[in-house]
Each structure stands twice: as C-alpha cells, then as structure tokens.
Amino acid sequence: MLFIVGIIICFTHIFAILGSPPIVLWHGMGDSCCNPLSLGSIIKLIEKEITPAPYVHSLRIGANVEEDTTNGFFMNANHQIDYACKLLNADKNLTNGYHAVGFSQGGQFLRAIAQRCPNPPMLNLISIGGQHQGVFGFPRCPGDNVTICNYIRELLRFGVYESVIQDHLVQAEYWQDPHQEATYRRVSVFLADINQERTFNPDYKTNFLKIRNLVLVKFLRDTMVDPHESEHFGFYAENNTAKIVPLRESTLYANDLLGLKIMDQQSRIKFLESDTDHLRFTDQWFIDNIIPFLKD
Ligand SMILES: *[C@@H]1O[C@H](CO)[C@@H](O)[C@H](O)[C@H]1NC(C)=O
Ligand SMILES: *[C@@H]1O[C@H](CO)[C@@H](O)[C@H](O)[C@H]1NC(C)=O
Ligand SMILES: *[C@@H]1O[C@H](CO)[C@@H](O)[C@H](O)[C@H]1NC(C)=O
C-alpha cells in the first residue's frame, strides 16, 4: 500500500518537475501574436487545461503588434521564416523541444520552420486551417480590415506571379493557380519551394521527418480558404477546378518528397475536422482534439 502511494507521489512529482513541453504559436493573416480575443484566449485555454501551465511563445514578426499584423501581408514569407527561426533559436526555454500550433497561414509557416529550422526541435506540428497546397481565391476577407483585404485582391488580380508581387505579397507566395501550374512552379517564391515542386531539397524531408505527429485541421464550412481541402494537403487537379486531388493521390505523396507517405503509413498524420467556418472552433472542440497533442 505504502509502496503504491509512493509510486503515485513519485509520478506526480516527476510531472510537476518536467511539465508539458513548451508551445509555440503562429497567428494567421490579419491577426497578431497578442490579440486578447484570438491567440490570447487560446493561451488562456491552454493554461487552464494543462497543469502545470506550459511555457507559451506566441511568435511576433516585427518590433510591435502593428508591425506583426502588417508583416502578415507584406513581409516576404521566406524572410518571416528566417525571422521566426532566429526567435526560436534565441529562446532558451525551447532548447529541449516544443509543440507548434499554427493558425491559418501560420500553419504552413510553421511547416516551413520544421523543414528549414530543425533547431530547437519541433515535436508535434498542429496546423489549424493551414493552406498546405496554397489557395486559389479568398472568397471572404479574413481579419477586421476590409480595406487591406480588397487591396490585396487587387494586387493578386494585377499579377500574382509577377516577381514584384511575389517578393512582397505574402498571399501571392502561396497562391497556386491550377490553370498556370508550370508558371506557379517556376516563380512561386515560397509554396513551390517548401512543397519541393521546383527543386528537391533533401534536408526538407530529413528535417520534416523528425517531428512526431502532423495534426491537420480542416474546416468543413470554411468560407475563407479556396479550396478548403488544402488544409488537408488536397488541391484542385491541374486545369480542372471541378476536381480535387486528395493528399494520398498527389505527386507530393506518391514520390514522398516530404516524407508524408512514411508519416501516414506510421499513423503520424492526424486528419481532423471541425464542422465550422475558418478558425471558428469551440473551446470544447480545442480541448477534445488539440490539447491531447500538447500534453507530452
Ligand atoms: C522561460 O520560462 C519561464 C517559466 O515559464 C518564464 O518565467 C521565463 O520568463 C521564460 N523565459 C523567457 C526568455 O521567456
Ligand atoms: C485598414 O488598413 C489601412 C491601411 O493600412 C489603414 O489606413 C486603415 O486605417 C485600416 N482600417 C482599420 C479600420 O483598421
Ligand atoms: C493544362 O493547360 C496548359 C495550358 O493550356 C497545358 O500546357 C497543360 O499541358 C495542361 N495540363 C494538363 C495536365 O492537362
């Protein structure tokens, strides 16, 4: 009896000492690191559900919240990845590894971190509405600022694959036009690169395979991402927007350019769904579906 009590005390003690791994968050387009209504409420929820509360680092790309929000539209995604990599390297609390949770475009950005920035080590990667095969339209403006959104639509219409736009407009950098696949592969400065569509970078696969689990959340009633299957790595067939090619039928998977096939065969990819609009999950859904991946 005493022995069992001893073991129980011992376990409790160990968990109290070790705690859960730290967590890194990356916000979505139109949002920032520190909005109390968005990531702020997620941090509160994590702190309430996991005891002792883990260390949380919500990435801020820029010197302040305003810059962080603007950079989500206008700072080249590759520079954002470099910037975030430096922040992660500098944070000594992350040295032994961290779980990563990306919201919307923060999902594909954190995947780029896993591929390009393996230190400190990422443990689980949770992508909540990330567009891993890009987008071919923003049917509705995310964020509060409709002015910025309309401006971005204009720029995309002007010439999504013009180099001046590719270099400066984040949303152009993960724009995949199924009617211009060859152009996309040639000029897309971000998505075509991390999806190994221009050249094959073996480090991307080696690094990506180091993560434990890839958790992909798709929003079934998403009105912001076209097509929302991109959140599960699906996309339109070439020249045919009436047909979706799911991950398991894609070239990326068949040739296993990123290790997704290996991960899938080892049941390390979790395909989750929320029957809501983009990022509109409930607290209970987050507790039931995401918190378990953040606990150890
Ligand atoms: C590291 O984590 C501890 C405990 O959560 C916290 O008190 C400290 O401020 C963190 N350090 C940095 C650099 O954020
Ligand atoms: C929207 O963004 C534009 C351009 O940055 C800015 O001038 C305007 O004040 C913003 N509007 C709101 C409501 O925040
Ligand atoms: C898609 O259309 C382009 C331009 O018409 C053509 O060059 C390409 O071969 C087509 N691809 C497929 C798979 O039909």
Automatic annotation (TrEMBL):
GO terms for cellular component: lysosome. Keywords: Disulfide bond, Glycoprotein, Hydrolase, Signal. Belongs to the palmitoyl-protein thioesterase family. Its EC number is 3.1.2.22. It is an enzyme of class 3 (hydrolase). This is Palmitoyl-protein thioesterase 1. Coiled coil: none annotated. GO terms for biological process: receptor-mediated endocytosis. GO terms for molecular function: palmitoyl-(protein) hydrolase activity. It comes from Rotaria magnacalcarata.
